[in-house]
């Protein structure tokens, strides 16, 4: 387990965390819209459980993204795929 943390690319992990925080504001909007018409007690529970679920999913998906960063040439393949999509859109 300690070897996993020793081999991490901490710069990439920091980039993922910063991007995730910047783009995470939409979770609050979706949770608020979903809980908007609920009674007070259910609204509070919905906000708490929705926030906890968003945090747990965020942590799991960040861990998955960090594991994906160790795959050789994955960024290159992803870049080529984005280039192909861009050309098809034009």
How is the secondary structure organized here?
Elements: H1 2-6, H2 10-23, H3 25-35, H4 40-68, H5 74-89
Helix pairs in contact: 2-4, 3-4
Structural features, described:
By secondary structure, the chain is mostly helical. It has one domain (2-89). Helices cover 83% and strands 0% of the residues. The protein has 5 helices and no strands. Helix 2 (10-23) packs antiparallel against helix 4 and helix 3 runs antiparallel to helix 4 (40-68). The chain is flat, with a radius of gyration of 18 Å. The termini are far apart. The model has no long low-confidence stretch (mean pLDDT 83).
- Count every beta strand, where a strand is a DSSP E run of 2 or more residues: 0
Gyration radius, rounded:
18 Å
Question: Major sheet, described briefly?
Answer: none
Sum up the overall morphology in one term.
Answer: flat
Low-confidence stretches: none
Give a short summary of the structure:
It contains 5 helices and no strands.
Keywords:
90 residues; mainly alpha
């Amino acid at each position: 387990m300690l070897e996993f943390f020793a081999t991490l690319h901490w710069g990439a992990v920091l980039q993922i965390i910063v991007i995730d925080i910047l783009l995470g504001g939409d979770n609050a909007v979706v949770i608020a819209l979903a809980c908007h018409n609920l009674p007070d007690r259910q609204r509070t529970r919905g906000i708490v459980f929705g926030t906890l679920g968003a945090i747990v999913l965020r942590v799991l998906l960040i861990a998955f993204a960090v594991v994906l960063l160790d795959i050789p040439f994955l960024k290159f393949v992803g870049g080529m795929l984005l280039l192909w999509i861009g050309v098809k859109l034009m």
